[in-house]
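Handout, section B. The chain below has 276 residues.
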Amino acid sequence: MSPPVRQTLPAVRPKPTLAVFKFASCDGCQLSLLDCEDELLAIAGMIEIRYFLEASSHFEPGPYDVALVEGSITTPHDAQRIQDVRRQSGYLVTIGACATAGGVQALKNWADHEDFLRTVYARPEYISTLATSTPIAEHVAVDFELRGCPINRHQLVEVIAALVAGRQPRTPSHSVCLDCKRRGTVCIEVAQGIPCLGPVTQTGCGAICPAYDRGCYGCFGPAAQPNCESITRQYAATGTTGAQLIPLLRNFNAAAPEFRTAGDRVAAESSSGGGA
């Protein structure tokens, strides 16, 4: 069982020390912090950054008041290293789909990782890796999760400001469908029959894909209390195949429990000749 995730962050001292750590990831969520542009100076004034190798080779040893952790656990070394990060951190915030749900690399959880090693590396015997890619919360206690692939930089600024103020971050958890309504985007599933995960996906992107006639593929993970079984069965009833649904459910947030359960069920029913 995964350690609990606390979504309320207690107050820290007026200018908390911050560390940013990377595990298996593409660095995109760390870059979101550097891309804050106008907000970056204000952030620098609110916190004292002591460890952020993406931005500077200079660092100071912990402990740290706050740690932002990007990336999933895919190696035995990282499984040990995250324990050390947790010990050094007063509050640990996971950022991005890799850290919160295993990331796109969690697709290997449904395959033989030894096959991948033999295919990619000339000398796979030198590679030390785990058979799975797992979120940080499966290894240590997490105080707050910020989802997305990549994260929404405005939400990141909000979380940092909330930490300094000692209040609950105001990060929305409604589904992408509400954002489509706000944008005036016609529902592509209703109008065009394009399968879309918008009804079960948490907001954060601004509903970009449906605005360009592309179904939502869940880059911000499951919304609050998503009914993934209902939506997949509805899509199957209207002609969407398991081969179309499985790639939607198994992508950036494939290991998120709600998407994983739905994807496994659709795959099992498809292989047995049943519907989704």
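Note. DSSP finds twelve helices and five strands in the chain. Compare this with the example in section A.
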